[in-house]
Structure formats: C-alpha cells, structure tokens
Specification:
Number of domains: 5
Strand content: 5-15%
Helix content: 40-55%
Largest sheet: 6 strands, mixed
Shape: flat
Strand order of the largest sheet: 12-14-13-15-16-17
Radius of gyration: 31 Å
Distance between the termini: 57 Å
Amino acid sequence: MAGRIREDDVSHIRHSSRIDDVVGDYVQLKNAGGGQKKGLCPFHDEKSPSFHVTPSKGFYHCFGCQSGGDVISFVMKIEHLSFTEAVERLADRMNYQLTYEEGPARTGGSDRKRLLEANRLAALFYQEQLQQPGPAQVGREFLQSRGFDKAAAAKFGVGYAPDEWDALSQHLKGRGFTDAELELAGLTKPGQRGHIDRFRNRLVWPIHEISGDVVGFGARRLSEADTGPKYLNTPETPIYKKSALLYGLEMAKKEIAKKRQVVVVEGYTDVMATHLAGIETAVATCGTAFGDEHIRILRRLLMDDDAFRGEVIFTFDGDEAGQKAALRAFNDDQKFVSQTFVAVEERGLDPCELRIKDGDTAVRDLIARRVPLFEFAIKSKLKLFNLNTAEGRVSALKECAPLINKIRDKALRPEYVRSLAGWIGVDIELVRDAVGRGSRESVGASRSGLEKSSPTYLLEREVLKSILQRSELSQSWPELMAEDFDDEALQSVFAAIAAEPAMLSSIPDLISRCEPEAAALITELTVEPLRTNELTTFFIDSLVARLREVSVTRKISELKSTLQRLDPESPDYGPTFTQLVALEAMRRALHEKGLGEALL
C-alpha cells in the first residue's frame, strides 16, 4: 500500500486551493473589507457572522468558536476526514495527481472516496434500471401518477431498484468493489446466503451532500407485498449522516442564497413538485425530523444575521401530524433570525398532491399565501379551547401568552398581544399583563469577555496582527520583549515569534512549532482584519512605540510604588530613583514616536 503523500504535493494543494472557493461550497461569504470575507460559521450556531476567511493568507478563523486553520484543516473538519483524505479530496477537486513516498500513486483512494464512488455508480445503475422494460414499469407508473414524466425523473436522478436479491451487488462487484465496501456504503446488507441488496423493487431517489456527491438513497416501496416501511433510507454510514442532510439542497443552494428564501417540504416528491412548479428553493429532510444541524446549514446559506431578513417557509400536511411538526418548528424558530412562515393547504394537500389536482400555479400560490409561524402556532393552540366560555378563554390565554414571550423580536410582541386579544375576545390589558408576567427578565446578567476589550489588550493584539501579517514593513518590532505584553496568551505568541523570527515568512511552519493554544491564536491573529486598510511602516512603528510606552508606564507605576515603601535613607532608594528617571525619559520619547491615545 502506498505511504504518505509527498510534502511537495501537500504544499502544492495547500497553496493552489483558494480557501474562499473551497469554503464557499459550504458557507455564503461576503466581502468584509481589507481583503477579508466573512460568513456564518459552519461549526457552531451563531446569529451574526464571526467566521472570517483571508484568501491572501489561505487561512480561516471563527471568532465565536475559535476554530481556525488552513484549507486542508477546513476540509478535515467540515467533512470529518483524516489529513490524507482531505488532501486527496482537494486534489480531486483540482484534478491533480498525487504521488506518494512509497510506491506508485494510489488509484483506489481513501475509504471515503471508495464509498462515494460506489454510491455514484449505484445511482447510475438505478437510473438505467428505471428505463428498462418489464418490472420497472411499476416505478414509471408511480411517477406518472404523481405528475412526473421521464424528463422530471432524469432531472432529479430518480431510479429503480430491481426486484432481485443481488442485482446491484453483482454490478458493483464487477466494478471492483468488495462486499465489505458495499455494506459499509449502506448499499447491501448480510443475508442468509451472503450479502443482498438493501433496496429491492423500490423507486429510488439519490441523496446528495451540499457539494453534490451522492452519499445515500431514499427508497419508496412499490408493492403491497413489501412488508418493509413505506420509505426506506440508507442507514448511517461514514458518509451518510441524515441529521446533516437535506434532500435537494445541492440543486437549491444557489437559489436559496440568491433569493434569501428556503421552502422546507416533507418528502422527495414534494421537492420535485415544488421545483417543477417554479419554487426552486425547496428542500426536505431525509427520514428524520427537522433539527439543529439543518438549521445551521440553512442559516449559512441564508446569511441569517442582523443585517438581513430572509424567509424560511415550512409546508406541512393539514393533519394532526403536520400541526405537531409546525409547533416543533416554532421552537426551532428561536434559532433563526430570519422571518419564518408556514404554508398549509386548507384541504390538507401536500405540494405534490396540490400540483396534481390544481397545477403549478396552485403550488406557487400556496407559498405566496404563507402566514407567520408565530400566528400559525398561536392559532393552532387556540383550536384546543372553547372560546365561547369564560373558562376556555382564560385557559387559552394561559396557554398562548408563553408563546408570545418566545418571540425573540421584542418589537413584534405588542402586535401579537393585540392580535391574541382579538382572537380570544378579551381585553388587551389582560393579555398584556399575562405576557408581562412571563417576560420579566433578570438584570445584571453577566457580560463575558469584557477583559478582552480593554485598550491595552486591543493594542497588544493589533501589534501582533501587524507583525504576523506585514512584518516586512517594520524594523522596530524586534525592540519589543515578551514582558511588554500583559496578556499571557499574547505574550506566548510573541515569544514564539521572537524565538524564530524567520518563520514569519512561512506562518504554517511557525504554527507547526507552537503548542496548540498558541497555534490557534496565531491563526486567529493572521486572519483577523487590521484596523486600517492602509498599513504603512509609520503605522506599525507607531503601534510598537505605543505598546512599549504602555509597558514602560506599567514599570514606572511599579517603581513609584516601590519608592513609596522605601526609606529615603535606604541604599536602594537612589538606584531605584535613577531607574525611574530613566524610564520617564524613555516614556516621553516613545510617546513622541507613537500615535498616543488615538491608537487605542
């Protein structure tokens, strides 16, 4: 087996893969000035963008969760890959042939590559089977009954799994795959006489990750004799994680980002119907409830921050299960800043059924008639009470007032107070009092991180950013000493730089020689935008002078405290006073060289 990838190849991949292009496959980035780009972090839940990418340096860093690194580490983290797999993934992306230190270049690739290839070939196999005469006719008839012709099936890659024990298995083993690989990919499972296909006599939809690779399938039974579930999905595999997948997202992502809208439907045929009706922002979950990971994925595409109000529109069946799904979404909505709506067809039709009955225009009208999720959730609760009785009205008020308290946008609460009063038929003051009792918030909440906003800390940080990003502009920074930095973490970073200043020309090499905490901080400082877009030698030297002035001022304060405690007749008093005078002169000179308080 081939060994390590050659360092030259790794270096080529690292420097030739534009980090903003790679990150852009997962995160909607926008310009942040100073050569920076920013977006919502893909690694943690956040309301406003703190994820920065510096294309010129090839680094990313999130100021919220502190994740950071280069393009290889990003792919490792986002795709849960090993270092080798990440390099191979990037090499495939740029069609670059890797070489290895032992033996020839590998042709089989990593396990992930093998699993992806197996799923890709399986998707093609299923699509071909759908067009074959004979048993596949039942699949074609099902699609036709749902309003989908041959072109629609091809557009969404729909296929047919033959009603045979090992048709797919034999096909893929003929392509060099092993039983172990096919089972790991979720395509087969152990049977009494060996491995058998997981999907048989079912209509099959390929499920793609956001980058476009096929990672699994959703399959619908076509025969009442099939005792299995109506819908059967690929089990959890190294590449199929249902909680992080949305069917149709690879097709919808550009329109979602462009229109700042996403429509969440409940099934594969609903996605097809909605797209074909002209709503190309539709997606669906893959055999699981809409959850936190789905929210994070959509938020990154919507650029869901305080500067933007997008739309998330949920479509649910009109039955009781659909109502419960909508109320679950209400709780999840608190994690969105986007305006969130519900579109429910009065007759209980889903988008696919609606398109069959009334056409594409009816589907578009359904989405256009969306109502705010808050309104839908409150009215769903009100249906549980008899509002013609005093007892019913009081119970409804007690049940619905907490829902208004959950509305994160406080400016909306008074509007819903007035609406709820009208819906229930009670005085507005009663509703206002009920809502107010539940919304009183404690004061004096802790404010974390204030120690990191002091002028001295910000100055120390700016100096290190300038050194790491543009050290060639300054000759004065070597005059600094580690003790000039008051913050211990920043002091450790400077110590690492001072120990090997030549490493400033190769930040990755510098990072590789540091402890993990210092390495992470160096990455962060390398990516963080500078306070000026016109960095000059004068500016950096002034920063250095100002930091030295602050450090000297700190020493002067300590010496004055020492002198106050010393007896003037003490032999230590004279030398200490002389040292104080020298430091005062140094401070005046540094102040003249620096920019004074304006830098802080």
